[in-house]
UniProtKB/TrEMBL annotation, chain A:
It holds the Pfam family DNA_pol3_chi. It comes from Thalassotalea profundi. Gene3D superfamilies: DNA polymerase III subunit chi. Transmembrane segments: none annotated. PANTHER family: DNA POLYMERASE III SUBUNIT CHI. SUPFAM superfamilies: DNA polymerase III chi subunit. This is DNA polymerase III subunit chi. Coiled coil: none annotated. It comes from the Bacteria.
Automatic annotation (TrEMBL), chain B:
This is ATP-dependent helicase. The keyword RNA-binding does not apply. SMART domains: DEXDc2 (SM00488), HELICc2 (SM00491). Residues 13-275 form the Helicase ATP-binding domain. Belongs to the helicase family. DinG subfamily. The lineage of its organism: Bacteria, Pseudomonadati, Pseudomonadota, Gammaproteobacteria, Alteromonadales.
Length: 162, 640
């Protein structure tokens, strides 16, 4: 299978205490995008806490950007359109959004992978490693900058209702 | 400036009577639309979110129009609030002499004839009935309008009332010796003469469907008709455009016939034979159905030969009684009345037997002793829109909960109101800061064995944080009782459980006790009014979708499917959305109200239709973290 990886480079400075805050937001925006294309998505997180953070963020999106989703361990039998987990996937989906610091061992199961390069130096280094890792698996890897085009603060204000 | 615009302005009459009045755009928008619709004799559908002030927004232009106005609302309580509180205030403000009348259904008025009859003939009374009876007699001497709602010392559900009020069946109408003093006729007269008449939906549609033909139409013709709580009308309307046939009607008739035989017509032996035979068959008919009360599809049942057989015997027996009664015509008034009832029962029988008719739902429901067969039209849109067209009046349909997904189609289609103007006015409340909507994570399935335990575990921290003041609502009695049992062991807050006492008593107890936790079924919610801190937390076990077993829903779904549409999104989803919106409206009633709604159904998060719910509900702060809710509630109760 020809897996295509898209790295989004986040140039905007992350002003939150959580170095991954901006990444999490973009994970959700991407999930919303794929849901509206009718593509089922698997969001892979580092741990349960991170999965809950994504869950919370998606649930608080504006109704117009509603994304039906579930955590692993709840929801319908075959999962909702978007499934969030810190464990390997149990059903097949075309799209993986990776929030972990390494290349998932099951990455080859997906035809499309979304990954991120955060602005934090240390995290950026880990992203470079993943970039290489995907290439070594023979995936086609592209990248795209987001930052200047999006006013992240505004996106957060618009997307989250608190 | 129109008169309505002026009334709502900073220097208008409202500002003069209401201290601290400041004009609100949403209210003015609605009032102006109502004014226009009255003027043009057209129709308007308006959702006015809680706190918009919709009551004044329709009352002021209506009273200013100086036309004949009917206001119909959902319950007797709301009728009284309009009649005794809101309208007098507006009347004073506008300094008008407009006459107002309150008109309720027949069962709300004392029947002098039956009261006297009962006083003479009553048999053994238990202590409660006797007390109630004495109280009613005392009150009857002084009342001016005979409205039993005035009785403060007799319980609403007292079994005495059927004996001192009349029904369309036992009313003697023109033959009544007390007709001169009849409270129902007096109320009706007042309504004809009044400028503004306050009625309720049941009365309105009963009258419209010409059910109550005792005195002809009860509700006078009007130039303006306003429905408040309009979200209830489609269901009520279809109920009254249908018919029902019950074994109770048959048994009541039989017992009246037997009474006549034993007292006045002792010579007609056939009367007792016919009535006793019919009694037995009607009782046997009930026994064909399962012992426990249920609802189901009558078309399916009558296909079975044992139902078909006994149902046709029923016909033979009704016929026999009818023939015997026919021979007794003119012997006395009571037996004439029995004859008319037999004619009526025969006509209804034929409706129930003719199950091939399309566009109608045939269904039955059983109580412990009786069977009721119903036919309900699948749609009232044709009839209702024709009625409106003929009325030459302005029509307003309003409620705090009418829109689904920001649209009104599901409502207007049911009533044939496609050409009505629509208006959607948001509530002025700050739901984002006043309220939270929580859908907890990892709840076991609705059918999982640990479900009740999980719900109880979840509820306890919420009850503690909310210090009682909590509703827990269920879609099944089984789950209700299971959770109640677990909670009883684990919490010291007083539990009020539906089934322990009447609904009214439960509510009184809840309002009287700051710390109470009320466990009830979801339907309990509609019409409940609890203000302020009394209710800060509502937990719902499942999204309020109607049960797929409901025969009326099945029939409607079948009809929608035939039109090539999806019954779930056309019927079940809008219904559930409105029910949930109603619930939020009960939780947050005021700018200062705060509260948490916990929905233990993750379908709201993981199904695409979650979007429809979110778009239709007020913009509450959403979370999946139960701690968010407990912190919010703790803060709330520390501040107060």
């Amino acid at each position: 299978m020809n897996t295509h990886v898209m790295f989004y480079i986040l140039e905007q400075e992350n002003t939150s205490a959580d170095p991954l805050a901006l990444v999490k937001l973009h994970v959700c925006i991407q999930a919303a995008h794929f849901y509206r294309q009718n593509q089922r998505v698997f969001i892979y997180t580092q741990d349960q806490e991170q999965a809950h953070a994504i869950d919370e963020l998606l649930w608080s999106f504006e109704p117009d950007s509603f994304v039906p989703h579930n955590l692993i361990g709840e929801g319908p039998k075959n999962g909702a359109a978007v499934e969030i987990s810190w464990q390997a996937p149990v059903n097949r989906r075309p799209v993986l959004i990776n929030l972990t610091s390494t290349v998932p061992h099951f990455a080859h199961q997906f035809s499309q992978i979304v990954d991120f390069v955060p602005s934090d130096e240390q995290l950026k280094q880990l992203a470079r490693e993943r970039f290489k890792g995907y290439r070594q698996l023979g995936f086609k890897v592209d990248n795209q900058k987001i930052g200047q085009t999006i006013n992240a603060e505004k996106v957060i204000d618009d997307a989250i209702n608190n | 400036m129109t008169p309505t615009e002026h009334a709502f302005s900073q220097s208008g009459i409202l500002a003069k009577v209401l201290t601290g009045y400041s004009p609100r755009q949403a209210q003015i928008d609605m009032a102006l639309e109502v004014e226009r619709v009255i003027d043009e004799k057209s129709s308007l559908i308006v959702e006015a979110g809680t706190g918009t002030g919709k009551t004044f927004a329709y009352l002021i232009p209506s009273l200013l129009s100086e036309k004949k106005v009917i206001v119909s609302t959902g319950t007797k309580n709301l009728q009284e609030q309009l009649f005794y509180k809101d309208i007098p205030l507006i009347r004073k403000a506008l300094a008008t002499n407009a006459q107002i009348a309150l008109l309720k259904g027949r069962a709300n008025y004392l029947c002098i004839y039956r009261l006297d009859l009962y006083a003479r003939e009553r048999g053994q009374l238990d202590a409660q009935m006797l007390t109630d009876f004495v109280n009613i007699r005392t009150w009857a001497n002084g009342t001016s309008n005979g409205d039993i709602g005035e009785l403060v010392n007799v319980a609403e559900d007292s079994s005495i009332f059927p004996f001192v009020t009349s029904t369309i069946d036992n009313c003697l109408a023109k033959e009544c010796p007390n007709i001169e003093d009849c409270y129902l006729i007096k109320a009706r007269k007042k309504a004809i003469e009044a400028d503004v008449v306050v009625v309720n939906h049941h009365l309105f549609f009963a009258d419209m469907a010409l059910k109550d033909t005792g005195f002809g139409e009860l509700i006078p013709k009007a130039d303006v008709v306003i429905f408040d709580e309009a979200h209830q009308i489609p269901d009520i309307a279809s109920e009254y455009f249908g018919e029902s046939f019950s074994t109770r009607l048959i048994l009541d008739l039989c017992s009246d016939v037997l009474q006549q035989y034993h007292t006045e017509l002792t010579d007609v032996k056939q009367l007792s034979r016919a009535a006793e035979k019919l009694q037995r068959t009607a009782q046997e008919f009930r026994l064909l159905f399962s012992r426990d009360p249920e609802r189901g599809n009558w078309r399916e049942k009558i296909k079975q030969s044992r139902f078909a057989q006994l149902f046709s015997i029923l016909k033979v027996d009704i016929d026999f009684l009818y023939q015997v009664l026919k021979l007794c015509i003119s012997r006395n008034e009571a037996i004439d009345n029995c004859f008319e009832r037999a004619v009526n029962i025969l006509a209804k029988y034929d409706l129930m037997a003719n199950v091939e008719v399309n566009g109608i739902s045939f269904w039955y429901e059983t109580t412990r002793r009786h069977v009721v067969l119903h036919i309900t039209p699948l749609t009232v849109a044709d009839k209702f829109s024709e009625y409106i067209k003929q009325s030459n009046a302005g029509w307003v349909f309003t409620s705090a909960t009418l829109a689904v997904n920001e649209g009104f189609n599901h409502f207007s289609e049911q009533l044939g109101l496609e050409s009505a103007a629509t208006l959607l006015l948001e509530s002025p409340f700050d739901y984002l800061h006043q309220s939270q909507l929580i859908v907890p994570r990892y709840l076991p399935d609705a059918n999982h064995v640990s479900r009740a335990q999980s719900l109880a575990d979840l509820a306890i921290p919420l009850i503690n944080a909310s210090q009682g003041s909590c509703f827990i609502l269920f879609t099944s009695y089984r789950m209700l009782n299971q959770v109640a049992e677990i909670l009883a062991e684990k919490t010291d807050f007083p539990l009020l459980v539906q089934g322990q006492m009447s609904k009214r008593l439960l509510l009184d107890e809840f309002i009287g006790n700051d710390q109470a936790v009320l466990l009830a079924t979801a339907s309990f919610w509609e019409g409940v009014d609890v203000r302020g801190d009394k209710l800060t937390c509502v937990i719902i076990d499942k999204l309020p979708f109607a049960s797929p077993d409901d025969p009326m829903l099945q029939a409607r779904s079948e009809d929608i499917r035939r039109q090539g549409k999806d019954p779930f999104s056309e019927i079940q989803l809008p219904q559930a959305v409105i029910a949930l919106k109603q619930g939020v409206g009960r939780l947050i009633r005021d700018v200062t109200d705060q509260g948490v709604l916990v929905i233990c159904d993750d379908r709201l998060v993981n199904r695409p239709y979650g979007e429809v719910f979110l778009k239709s509900l007020p913009d509450m702060r959403r979370s999946r973290n139960i701690t968010q809710a407990t912190e919010f509630l703790s803060a709330l109760h520390q501040n107060s």
